[in-house]
Amino acid sequence: MTSKNYPGTYPNHTVCEKTITVPKGKRLILRLGDLDIESQTCASDYLLFTSSSDQYGPYCGSMTVPKELLLNTSEVTVRFESGSHISGRGFLLTYASSDHPDLITCLERANHYLKTEYSKFCPAGCRDIAGDISGNVVHGYRDTSLLCKAAIHAGVIADEVGGQIGVLLRRGVSRYEGILANGVLSRHGSLSDKRFLFTSNGCSRSLSLEPDWQIRASSSWEWINETGGQVRWSPGQARLQDQGPSWASGDRSKNHKREWLRIDLGEKKKITGIRTTGSTQSNFNFYVKSFVMNFRNNNSKWETYKGIVNNEEKVFQGNSNFRDPVRNNFIPPIVARYVRVIPQTWHQRIALKVELLGCQIAPSRTQDCWKQIKYPFARHQSAEFTISYDNEKEMTQKLDLITSDMADYQQPLMIGTGTVARKGSTFRPMDTEADEAGPAAEAGGHYDCPLPAGRHEYALPLTNPEPEYATPIVERHLARAHTFSAFSARSGYRVPGPGPTHKHSLSSGAFSPAAGYQLPQSPAPADPGYDKPKGGGGGSAAGRADPACQKPQVNPATNAAYLAPRDCLRPLNQTAVTALL
């Protein structure tokens, strides 16, 4: 808030009153940045603050005035009165609620502070306050620049509402380059001992516009040059970083329909600013002086970017010549896939080059969860864990079955000797029971993701109707009786050893290799024993009369699935060996 004509001389014989309020329950902070009132007695020229219970002032002349007033109320009336005077700038003050004790005025400069890093709260309305700034957001500002005005220029805050700024003090540079940005013109500056920059959220990178199909326009200018060649100022030439002429509209009249330049970013992105230039060609003095922005997403209507306070279409200040780039920031940012630049005023002909600033949208929790489901075992894996079975070949039913359509996560994995490797497994690890007991579960783990209704969290191994263990094939050899006895004791299977009357083993081959034979017939389905092979005419007599070819006698009281024949066997001929193998 300032007196009329500030910083020029305030008018004679005026009375101005304004009431300032902040939200109920908050205290009001007033900071006086400047006070220059000619009267020494405050009889006719003064500044006075009045609340429902207190009065502060009047202030005038050369009296000592407090730089800050912390009021015990949320509302105060400011009264400024002037009589006949010759000079005097009047006053400048800022105000905020007690939520912002670090409030500063629009007149504060960076060289007023010695700290290398600090944070301050800027009021609204500092853009048009008299005072220079030098530099830019990329390389920094000269330390003699106004802090809040530089913050508006940098796009850190909006002039309509002000806001918090973070300042970093650094060593100065030999020269500061000035540009026009957000309606504020910074000037070129000379060497200084210090410079300052603003902390940033990092969302101000150039958004790539590589393929020509990303840029479209309502029309394009085409003309024939003196050599008879066709020159076209197409929308594909509207990228700021490209050399050569820009895009230019086909109609140069001021009363034609709205021209536009449309940009497709390919996906929804966060757009925080735009840089524009004119034709960039000295013999074509074309540029856009002001423009508005439209935006939309897939299957939605075009929306107009509006101001923060008045909720009306916001008109951005464009270029003042064909050459120098101008930056405008979007506060709040635009979140969209498509944007349109719609020129409002221009010089001679609409001509534009553009660069959008922003960043990718941070993925949501739902997107993170899907990635973790798709690659569920990327998290840290613990040691192996055991899945046990009982003697009746029934699986322990402790795990729920996933009924989703992701069948590649339901395959059984290396179930053999009672263990299964954790890596790549779909079975619930036993260490998750402890994780589920407390809220400090591993963040982002694939077990934390919500599952759709009707789907369980973990998969069971596929059921196996066959015996879990095969009956071992035992090679009956006299010298291995002790080995079979030891194996039987360890494994729990009852496997008979060869009797002492055996004279030959199966591997000794008590038959003539030259003897002819036929392949044995398959045993009958109801008869699981061994059948006697039918020998050929040239077969060995010993082979035909040998009782070892007889069907072994199995004790019917035992389980056939786990017991080998109990009778002592005699050597078989080669046909029987082949059948067994």
From TrEMBL:
Q: Which terms in the Gene Ontology molecular function aspect does this entry carry?
A: signaling receptor activity
* Keyword Transmembrane among UniProt keywords: yes
Q: Where is the F5/8 type C domain?
A: 203-359
Q: Which InterPro entries match?
A: CUB_dom (IPR000859), FA58C (IPR000421), Galactose-bd-like_sf (IPR008979), LCCL (IPR004043), LCCL_sf (IPR036609), Neuropilin_MCO_CoagFactor (IPR050633), Sperma_CUB_dom_sf (IPR035914)
**Membrane protein topology class:** Single-pass type I membrane protein
Keyword annotations for this protein?
A: Disulfide bond, Membrane, Phosphoprotein, Transmembrane, Transmembrane helix
Domain named CUB is located at 1-98
Instruction: Return the Gene3D superfamilies for the record.
Output: Galactose-binding domain-like, LCCL-like domain, Spermadhesin, CUB domain
Q: Which CDD domains does the record match to this protein?
A: CUB, FA58C
Q: Region labeled Disordered — which residues?
A: 235-254, 495-553
Q: Which residues form the LCCL domain?
A: 100-196
Localization terms from the record? Membrane
* Cellular component aspect of the GO annotation: plasma membrane
Q: What is its main location?
A: membrane
User: Does the keyword section mention Transport?
Assistant: no
Matching Pfam families, A to Z? CUB, F5_F8_type_C, LCCL
The name of this protein is: Discoidin, CUB and LCCL domain-containing protein 1
**Species in which this protein is naturally found:** Eschrichtius robustus (California gray whale)
